User: Fold this.
Amino acid sequence: MATRILGIAGSPRAGGNTEILVRTTLDAAAAEGAETRVFCLSSNHVEPCRACHECGKDVQWCIIDDDMTNGLYADFMWADAIVFGTPVYMGGLSAQLKAVIDRTRPLWRRDNALQNKFASAIAVGDGQWGGQELARQSVLHFCMNHGMVLLEPACLPYGSWEVCGRAAEPGDVRDDEFAMRAARGLGQRLARTELVVASR
Ligand SMILES: Cc1cc2nc3c(=O)[nH]c(=O)nc-3n(C[C@H](O)[C@H](O)[C@H](O)COP(=O)(O)O)c2cc1C
Assistant:
């Protein structure tokens, strides 16, 4: 059975560097037989949590009528693995991705629906030390909060590399060979996860 991988691109910029790295990961996974879906925050609207606590009551997911309630919750349920991509904004993750993260609370309340799904994070910023690692770790800490299993590329001879890109204008990340290589390695590793689990 093919691994199902959901990629979330957390930039408001369509076709930008975050989306390129997320799609590169998904394409590498698809080449290994995985099923993939992508959710871009440039073309989908996700509002921040309103702290109304209605998700603890008798609603399926959330009372907010947006692209999270009308699609992304179902994509989260569908996926075996989720790749969260963010541009670095002011040294951290984007507000667009944070809105998605806060809105996952109903999944938590639904028997920890994300527990034991695989998770990885991608960050891209303009600076050489612009906050990519912290942005990624913030996302991964949220994944741990859900009991997800963190997975890194392990694509290089000396072990794992974080998928951190350095790029300013849309498309620049294609010139960051290490980020592109790590993204492809992550996709391959995620796609092969099913085989690892099945062989235990
Ligand atoms: C509001 C804002 C804040 C930013 N803050 C940082 C930052 O702290 N560190 C950094 O390296 N790049 C920063 N950048 C640059 C973006 O991370 C960079 O252009 C990235 O490639 C954007 O990804 P995208 O093409 O997917 O939108 C910032 C950009 C914006 C718009």
Notes: The first helix runs from residue 17 to 31. The chain has one domain: 4-198. The radius of gyration is 16 Å.
